[in-house]
Amino acid sequence: MRASRSGMSQVMVGRDDELRRLRRLADGSEPSIAMLGGEPGIGKSRLVQELIAGLPETVPVLDGQADPGTLSRPFEVLLGAIDSSRRSELLDPEPLRVVTDASRSMIDRIQAGLEIVQQLTEPGTSLVVFEDLHWADSESVALFERIAELPGSRLLIGTYRPDEITRRHPLADLLTRLERRYTVTNVRLERLSLADTSMFLKSATGRPPTYRTALSLHNRTGGNPFFLEELLKANGDADLDTLCDRPLPWNIAEALRRQLDDLDDAEKRIVEAAAVLGRKVPFDLLAAVTGFDENELIDGLRDLVRRGLMVETGDDEFSFRHALTREALVDEMLARQRRRLHELALETLLSTGSKDYALVAHHAKGAGRYLDMVEAARRGLVVYLEMGSPYQALQLAEMGLDELPDDVELLSCGARAAWLAGLLDDAQELGRRWLDAAATGDERADALRLLVRLSWEVGSSGSMQERAAQLRREIAHLPDGPAKAQAYAAIAQAYMLHDDTERAVAWADMAIALGEELGLPAVWLAGKVEKGSALVNVAAGVDEGVKLLNEAAQEAEEAGEWLLAARSLNNLYNLLPGGPADWAAALERMRTFAERAGFESLAVAAYFQGRARLAVQEGNLSGALAELEAARRRDKGLLRTRNGSDYHGVFFTGLLLEAGELDKADMVIRGLIEQSNDAYTMLTQTSVPGLQFHLACRLGRIDLARDLLRTVLDAVRVTGVTGRDFAHDIISAGLAAGLSADELRPIAAAIDDPLFDDAYRWLADAQIAEAAGDTPAALRLYRRATAEPTMLLPAQRGTGHLGAARCLIAAGDLDGARAEVRAAEPHLARWAGWRVAELAALRSRLGLSAPTAGGDESLTPREREVAVLLAEGLTNAELARRLYISPRTAAVHVSNILSKLNLESRTQIAAWVKSRPPAR
Question: Domain 257-354, what fold?
Fold first, then answer.
């Protein structure tokens, strides 16, 4: 048995799609071949191990591995695979003697090897793996090709390093022949993304890394899992944040330096200069520092690229293939040598008037010229903030603050950059330092404006109110000017975020008036955004609010005020006329504007949550869950703030409870409770107990549910109900668990608030009336709630129709009840969970059958094939690759299937396929 290469991470990260593809091949009934390629340490062996671990114990596995030096040992990979087999003791010794007998012909030995493979893998499904074929002897490579010819449902996998396959290597011709003779699945493992690197670190250490740590280690290792593991091993139990500055472990450093052993003097001069010049090295700068002319440098770089040491990352731009190679080189150089190269680079950049301020500051710091560094930082801050690169701006601000720790300009720009980048702890720290260093009222007001917003971002309602009051006191002594006008808008925003519509509108009007008087478009636009955002939360103000936000979005776009444009659309997109298609288009515009502003929370988190909300508004529960799953995969493992709050947790849990995924909902709720710090005092003060109550009701834990209901009611008395459907969800869960109408009536009464659409109030009152036995009143309210137009979402509208159906059954009007059930069906067609269970129960009670999809006779053979693959979870791109068609053609097939079967989602196609009798 070969030694495991399992690594430190307990969960394989970033390889779900690749593993899914291999599992589908392993489950097939035909022989198949997969070639798994990737650079050293990328995780090829780990992926194979995960595949093997997921197979039933009865599946035969042959897993052989080539090692450096096996080129002189024929059939070494097969012999290692025999040792790995659970069946090796049953092997007939004669074929094994032939394979190892050097006096026998190669044909005899290969034939004997094939007999061994057949004996150890048949009958049924089996797996044969030849790992590290780039090191394999020619006999093992030849045997691998012949195994592909064997009959049976066998998956044959070969792993290799593409960069080590030369034209003379026996594997080079094999790859070409396999592609020509068989259908080969090529799986290329790429480096881990930043999000995957974060997940890897969290899995390996049990705690999420900060954004800075994840980014630093991703940049250091290039997302190579092996390098990440080695750095973690060297770090031991030390704080993960200290790993960014730790020197390389000797084994990695030596392995990387060995790549330089065969370089000539000119090539060494190039790589040493490039190592000091940074991660991305401009050709002209490298030429100036090395002193080579263009042709000499081109020749040297061409050879370095051919060797795999460097790569061309853009026009006239080069990087090391592995960032750690650069690090190992720099660590070996003398300090004076590094400083001299930095000085040459700085002089070149300054003499050419370079606008790459980050590069200028980097070399100024390396050269010890700190005044030049601070000057470059000041200029770069403005440029990078304007171009939507807040993290780069933050790094420059911090570089300058190392020299001038109390500089108000650097502190203000750094705090704003950290906020835009989503690094809220850093933003708060810099914001407080800014406030302490501020010498004038204007400067203090500007600092407080950001601190007000940051208090809300981290979920601290009390702190936000305190900072807003401090800001009001500060501007009371200021003359009318930009600082005062901007403060008006900030205070309006604070009231808007706290749902104090009247005061928000009043302060917004003051901001608009003073901004227009002073000729400050950014200020009166901000006032419009705050006023419109406040008004759309009041039923009577929606029309005016939509008009204001629409105007603000258009005017902000024209003025290049990308942050205000993004905020306008974020608060507007799902209120626009035209329906889901227009809403989705507006959401995409919002994301574009947020990316231009560099505003992380809108460009990523709010964007995905917006997509989920649009799916809910279309009645598509699985689609909404998928969007939030994607969003949480991006955020999971990244700790941008010490609160570590789960941005999507409350919304995600509510949808899980809708779908009946109670165990998963419980897990997310526990995570929300664990972070019950300052962030717990705002949204989660009501929402988390409400989710706990809902879960307890669905689990039938009545006593716990009653205790939690008291907690919810106490929170409601303090904060008011949050969310238009909150009361409906609480009442629905309570009634399902058997709580009385009297126990739940206070929740319905709490909706008596102008922030709530009447339809939700009528729906909740109808549920209470039905539970109290007043079916005439309940029927009247249900019908009123579901009448057009209302703001009820499809799922709640469906439930309203079902409530009306129950009332009509109680009144003996079965035909009317059937009509209400039929009215509910389209609203719940793409939903799941308890609402759909209620629909099914009423159908059964009224003798109604579910709407049926069309039969497979309407599908073409190709469409039936596509439907089966869709049931396996393939995307359009995967369909295209599997069937050798274009993604556009795949999309047409999917659309045709949905139309012919009268279905609405890929999930329904999968259910339809599973419901069909097996083919004969």
Answer: Arc Repressor Mutant, subunit A (1.10.10)
